[in-house]
Structure formats: structure tokens, C-alpha cells
Amino acid sequence: MGFKRDKKEEEDGGGNPFQNVEKTTVLQEARTFNDTPVNPRKCTNILTKILYLLNQGEVLGTMEATEAFFAMTKLFQSRDVVLRRMVYLGIKELAGVAEDVIIVTSSLTKDMTGREDMYRAAAIRALCSITDASMLQAIERYMKQAIVDRHAAVSSAALVSSLHLTRVAGDVVKRWVNEAQEAINSDSVMVQYHALGVLYHIRKSDRLAVTKLVAKLTRMSLKSPYAVCMLIRIAVRLVEDDEVSSDSQLFEFIESCLRHKSEMVIYEAAHAIVNMKRTTARELNQAVSVLQLFCSSSKPTLRFAAVRTLNKVAMSHPAAVTACNLDLENLITDANRSVATLAITTLLKTGAESSVDRLMKQISSFVSEISDEFKIVVVRAIRSLCLKFPRKHSVLMNFLSAMLRDEGGLEYKASIADTIITIIEENSEAKETVLFFYNTMLWYKNAFHTSASSLKIVNTPV
Amino acid sequence: MLQEPTLYTVKGMAILDNDGNRILAKYYDKKVFPTVKEQKAFEKNLFNKTHRANAEIIMLDGLTCVYRSNVDLFFYVMGSSYENELILMSVLNCLYDSVSQILRKNVEKRVVLENLDIVMLALDEICDGGIILEADSGNVVQRVALRADDIPLGEQTVAQVLQTAKEQLKWSLLK
Lengths: 462, 175
Known about the structure:
Number of helices of chain B: 6
Low-confidence stretches of chain B: none
Oligomer: heterodimer
Largest sheet of chain B: 5 strands, antiparallel
Helix content of chain A: over 70%
Structural class of chain B: alpha+beta
Shape of chain B: globular
Mean pLDDT of chain A: 85
Structural class of chain A: mainly alpha
Largest sheet of chain A: none
Order of helices and strands of chain B: EEHEEEHHHEEHH
């Protein structure tokens, strides 16, 4: 056994060239950056080690960081593409710690406007990470040019960076609205998405401007599924904020997205419709039938998204979900336990009293495997079930008591305790079972000290 | 309930080994796990919950996490629990496919560490400060500046092959 472990460690050590990397040694090695001519391979390797250490959580002091940063600036001499790109990464990582980082401004500006396409986009992003409000003016002209650059990478980099820059200089970006507007017509999926993000950010406080933007974009049919998802969210906001006269055109747009060719967009639209206040029964049914289709998808994420949304619908409109009961039945043994849990709790909300025992048995077979988040979902389902079918309280109370004894966080335990209180308060028959619970709660109280809800339960008159 | 429409979609990305240790990880929202200690605790927990069940998606600590694994590597993308799960999935697929192409389909820990610089560049091309920068793995790979000698032999010219051989000989002597 001991031999085996040694061998394994040896293998691991041999496999991981970074295992024994130490901060002080690497920072020493970084002095090599000052050598001329630069050895790209060697320097890239050292820089990778520094970035690896930072990523592992190693903290550099201001002095150390500044020293490493200045050594790194020497690497601008080399034209090696990988090395240059690693230098940009290093600049971004150290920008928050090292002092006088603006020293690289001119080098980066040169790269961002230069001829080497492999540099430009990444240089913009590095430059904006060291730019503050006072320096922004100096690069404004280049940023405007970059936003409308014909290279998608350059344009995206400039748009995304300008959004990050709103944190240091909120107003400057507003002057780039014309360029962003031009970028939204781009053929690139990502540029279109980023341009919409920037435009919305600039206009979001002006409702009329947002309305105009959405009206224009819903007519031009965006190519990027990401941009359409974003547009749906903006439209939802407009519809929800407007309580008096709901604009039916906006809703029609969202509904039309149910027939989009991208699953991402279809789901976004269905999710939006289900959650909107003004949705009518007919519109709800359309969204639900799309989600029903997703329930039988081969992709776990799609099934998860669908059943999670249906679970929510079941709370407000249980009748609308009954059409999916057959599909949900197929999911109660799903290999993804979250999907199974959501399917079962949805069925509990929509199904008949006769299926309660069967579903509870199914869920107890794997309840220990699921995360606290989902255990709380189960507890909430049981609560509403007890109120709906008072005669089932003994099955459910037994289940709750078993859950209470299992491992779990405070929030989860508190939700069980609260549910038990609700059941006792609402159901006179359940009071008889309470004595049994009293003991459980006492045990719980001792084991976990006192929380507000466990105290409350212990004080409930029996 | 109503979310502010924003481009800030991704809360974090991580590549872990088969002991749940971090190879690379990035968190983009200071409010989610502000310290490295909290981040690593979350990663351990996430790994424990996901390494056996190949179920692709899980909710943990208020985040929606999508994941994929191969041999001894685990790839994760995290977003808020209100986020469109399919958008997060498209980011994960891009991450996985990009790394897979960079490593010439040898998706395993040793090879990741040998190419760590390029993998770092790929992560940086996929997500910038929480905004999805690129979701097409082809574009990502094109932008991370793969070294010339990393191109498979069949696609190199004779001169390049000779040059590479010379380099390798030189390095093996220097080691």
C-alpha cells in the first residue's frame, strides 16, 4: 500500500511541472526578463509559472508585484506572439497590485493600433485594464476606431472593454454610441451581442430611448442568438414596467421567439412568458408545450431547464402543467438527481392524492444524494402537499422526520422545522403525531444548539 | 425576480484535476467567494458533488454550475441561478472544445500542464471579466496563437519540420 502511494506521488510529481514552484524562486527567475536578447521560450515559461502561482491564490506584495511588472515590460522587445500575449495577461493580473502600471500605456497603444492582428484585440483589453478616467481621453480616438473595426475580435474587445470602463468613467462611453450603433449591424454573432449590451447600458435610464431601440431591433431580426436572448430580457422589462397599456407588439416578439431555431432563444422566450404577469392561459399553454418538448431531450441541461421552469409554473398554474405529467413521470428516475427531484416535486403539486405514496418512495431512494438547495425544494413541495391532502400527513411527517435526522445545513433544517410548524397549525389530526416529533426536535435542538425556528417548535404547546 | 439585462453572465470558470484540486480557476464577481479560501472550499464541494455523477448540471451555493469531464480533468462554468442554463452550457462547450483542440484531443492533466500558457490564453479569450467574449471554439483556437511547431506534422512544410527537429534536439541537449 505504502509503495503504491509513493509510486502515485512520484507519477504526479513527474506529471506536474508546477508542483514544486515557489514564489521567491520564480520571482528570482523573472530577472531573466532583463536579458537581451530575450529568450521567448524560457521567458514564457517563467511568466506562466508566475501566472499559475497567482491563479493558485498566491499573493504578491506591492513591492514584489511592481518589480515583476517592470521586469515584464522588458519583454516588449520580443516579437514572439505567445510571449507577448502572456505579457498582456500578466499586465491584467498585476494591474490591481503593482504601482505605476501606466508605464506600458504607449507600448499597448502601439500594439492596439499596429499591423499585427494577433496583438490588437488582446492589447485593447489589457490597455483598458490599466486605464483610468484621466487617461481615457488619450485613447478615446483609438477606442472609437476599434469598435467599428472590421475584425470581429478587435470590435468585441473594444465593446466589452468600454463596458468595463463605465466603472471608472461612466460618461465617456456615452460618446461612443454612434460607433456601437454601427457595430450592431455586424455579421459577427458576438460583436452584435456586445454592441447591444453597450447600447442598452448607455440608454437604460431613458425609457423612450430603450423603447425605440427595441422596436428597431425586433424589426431587423438579429442574427446572434445571444443578442436575441438579451433583447427578450429588455422587452420583458419594458412590458413588466408598463402597467397601464401593455404593448402587444413586444409580447408578440417574445412569443415569436418560441419558434426561433436556437434552443437557447426558445428557452429564454418560454421562461420569460411563464414568468410574466400579463401572460394569459392560451399564451401560457404555448410556452408550456415548448418546455414539454424539452423534457424528452437527450441533453441533461435542457431537461433541467425545462423541468425547473415547469416546477415554477406548477406553483401558480398547476392546471397548465398537467398536460406534461406523462413526460414528468419519465423523468422521476433521471440520472441527474436534480432533474428527478424537480420532476417529482412538480408531480406532487399537480398530481392526484393516489400517487403521493409512490412518489415519496421514489424520492426517498435518492434524497441523500441531492444538494441542500434541492432538499429545500422537496420540503416546500411537502408543505403544500400537506395542505392539499390533509389525510397524507403521516406519510409526509415520517419523511420529514427522516430528513431532519440526515445531514444538512442550517437553512435546510430550518425549512423542515418551519414546515412541521405549518402542518401542526393547519391540521388538527397531525397534532397527535407531534409528540413523536417533540422528541426529534429536542434531539435536534441539542445537536445543533438553538436556532430561532427550533426554539419556536419546542415551545409549541402539545 | 426581474433581472437587470446585462452582459455580465459568467460568475466563474474552473478546471480541476481528479482529486478536486484547482488547475486553473477564474471568478469574475467579487461578491461571489471574495477570498481564495472560499473559492477553493466551493471547488472541493462542487467536485465532491459532481465527480461521480456525470449529470452535466447542478445547483450549488446559489449558483448554476454546468460541467464536463474527461479522463482526469473536470471543466466547470458557473453562473447565477437566474441565468439561462443553455447560455452557460454554450460557454462550457466552447471551453472544453477549445482545450481539446489545443491539446490535440489529449484532454488530460499532464498535457494541460504542458500547454498551460495556451490554455490560460484560451480562458482569457472565452470570458472577459464575466462577459462571454467568444463562444465559438474555432475562433478561440485561432486567436490563442498556437505555436508553429504545434501544428501536426502533416500540415508543416519540410523546412518547418527541420527547424522543429533542430529546436527539439537543441533543447534535449540543454536539459
